[in-house]
Amino acid sequence: MILQLTLTLGTLTTLTTLSQAMALTPRGVPIPTPIPPMLRFQCSQLVLDRLDPLGSPGQIPSPHLHQIVGGNSFNATMDPATHDLPGSSTCTSCTFTEDLSNYWTAVMYFRDWRNGTFTRVAQKPNLGLEGNGGVTVYYIPPHDNTTRVAAFKPGFRMLVGDATASPTNPGQDPKVCHRCMPEDGDLGNLNCAEPDTKTFPTGFCVGGIRSVITFPTCWDGVHLDVPGHRDHVAYPVEGNYDKTPDGGVCPDSHPVKIPQVMLETIWDTTPFNDEALWPEDGSQPFVWSTNDKDGYTQHGDYVFGWKDDSLQRAMDARCFGNVCEGVLATQTVEESVTCTIPQTVVEDVDGWLDRLPGQEDMPM
């Protein structure tokens, strides 16, 4: 997609012209449009755990495994009335030290059709970034220089995707998808557009499988959260946040434009690009930790935790990439990967497993 660029020393270079962007793309691959301003940064893995303070608040364990990144005050409850992420966290696994938010998604596994065992698919840092897997996080304002977005407020939460979706009930979220990645990344392609699919790719992916989760960009201006964590936000009803310079037209019920938050994970499926490892019936071998072999159940949860007004300042400054000089403080990759927490639900999530964590049966 247009947000992925060739970088130097892990730092996203500020590009102000199309010619600059094209000069830095690998093997002369052109970028068809100028690169808009955005934050794009790595959040390394905080923990793999069966906790879900939005989907299953206070439940230990939650039904399925999540990969979790961000501030180290993450826990099973995170009651918005008492839990202050910036005040409670002592570190973050993200590049920007003022971002103590938490982000979490489902986890991808490979299933060996020959004996029914599972092994976790490793994540790898996105193009030009470094870390121990985890998630690439984006905060994107409208592309023009006049439309101001309102940064989130303490207590804000939202969720995209449906962990119970299925082929007969595929869910309504249009911005949760997969892409079969080429070897050098994928430039010039928008998130969740052709050739992205809601389901898993059906063939070998030489660059792994990219999972994209894009949150709505319109807010009702009143509720920081609602039951279900969805109805206080909405996607534009006219135009497209990715293509329309002012971010499109928000519905009257949700008039406030907020940053486009996007979670992008590259799952390194390349060790399994072997015909002998794929099912003989022609199906693909990957599953989400939600007990889903089709791909419909990937989902993303977001709990806002930026310090003070740091995110608003970054959006107003039109910062670019994983550097926001004079506005946001950063930490090194070596520092970010040391921010981890122990599992609350202590169980094996790696190696070869007889079943997915939390799943008694895996019908295939």
UniProtKB/TrEMBL annotation:
Give the organism the record lists. Answer: Dichotomopilus funicola
Signal peptide stretch: 1-23
Tell me if Mitochondrion is a UniProt keyword of this record.
no
Q: What is this protein called?
A: DUF1996 domain-containing protein
Name the domain of life. Eukaryota
Residue ranges of domain DUF1996 in the record: 52-306
Q: Does the keyword Acetylation apply?
A: no
**Keyword line:** Signal
